[in-house]
Amino acid sequence: MATQYFKDNKGHPKPIGGPVRRRRVLLCGVLALGLLFFFFVPWELPPSLKDAGLPGISRANVAQLMKTKGKKVEVGEIYGLLHLVTGDHEQEHVLSNALQLDPTVPIELSVYAAGDAVDWAQEQALIDKEYPVIVFSKTYCPYSKRAKELLAAYDIQPPPKIVEVDIRDDGNVIKHLLTRLTKHSTFPNVLLRGHSIGGSDNLQQLHENKTLTKLLEEAGATPRASGPK
Question: Where are the transmembrane segments (predicted)?
Answer without folding.
Answer: 25-43
